[in-house]
Amino acid sequence: MTSLLDGLAALVVVLALNLWVAAQIRGRSEGAEGDFLVRTYWATLLLRFAGAILLNMGAEESSFALAFWGDSSTYDRGGYLLSLYWSGDLLAPPYMAGTVSGFGFHYVVALVYSVFGRNQLLIQFLNGTVGSLSVLVIYAIARDLFGTGVARWSALCMAYFPQMVFWSCAMYKDPLILLCIACTIYAVVRLREQFTLRYIALFIGACLLLMTLRFYVFYIIAAATLGTFLFAQRRGLLGGMAAHLVLLSAFLGTLVLAVRAETIEQQTAYFDLEKLQVSREDLSRAGSGFAGQIDVSTPQGAMLALPVGLVYLLFAPFPWAISGLRQALTLPETLVWYALMPALFRGLFYTIRWRLRDALPILVFAGLLTGAYAIFQSNVGTAYRQRTQVSMFYFMFMGVGRERRLRQGVALRPGPAVHLRA
Fold it and tell me: pTM for the full model?
């Protein structure tokens, strides 16, 4: 548990940061939309800060920590050891700082600890801030594609849906992953209109940070955005091809310079189906494992696992199979999620039929990542956690479906583009 003095220091730091963010929101938005964004941003922050304090207070109680603190202890210890190594108090770097997958968040924690000291609550507050920034980015994407009504719905779901709140309260890397994904999609949406260095830098920077956090999501989003960028543009074919080549060259050049070749080789090896099967078996042995008997080491086995995995990824934990406190707490959210499924499918149908070109990068990324997790996951808990990475786009399509039902026969028009500083 963080001491009172460290807690006050954390509050001062994040308050100063978020006062500046709120001023930027107000300066770049007007009228009712500005009021909505500022109000939603502060409400999002307060909700996450309250959750952070509650989790921090219970972190030292073993049963509570096991249920809700989770990976936070790993990142706290790894970041602290790495900060000691940087300061010269530790002779060798900790092993966890050099792992193939997910080492980036250790560096984030270490950087904060190097400046402000070991302050868990500060990391939690910063995670809440990152989660709140994701709300703004999703709002900007939805407004540019579908208009203000869908944008407001998407922002409110991001702000208040329990799964989005919880992962932003402790020392998890999920909020930063969501922000990186949202920023890459936002950059692609803006690059359709204005091919500028600022948005290229935003796309490349978010992608490279994503590689250090969850590398396989990086590969999926890079493939989805780069592969569909040419078809999702609003400029002519020749200009689109030129822009596509510039973006691809800049991305590959930065990747080669910033990431070691052996790291890329180690990461790509994880896409081997036999290794995937080993990881899947490990996950299925847990108390909430499922479909452990399916062998995905062959393409045929992977296809057999896909339908079962999709059901669990999209709908688990099932209300009739809830066991334990953590799953019981998700019941209200799960029932609301089920109730929104018709809106999701209506929104997907409308988007594919009428707005396919504009939303193609989002559709391809959400489809690829959903399919990948459906094959890979064999544990209810991890499936529920990973669903957040596509839920923010599902919220958008739910908003489209909801608007279509409220405004039958009226096409959804994009709103004025919301420009965010890279």
Answer: 0.91
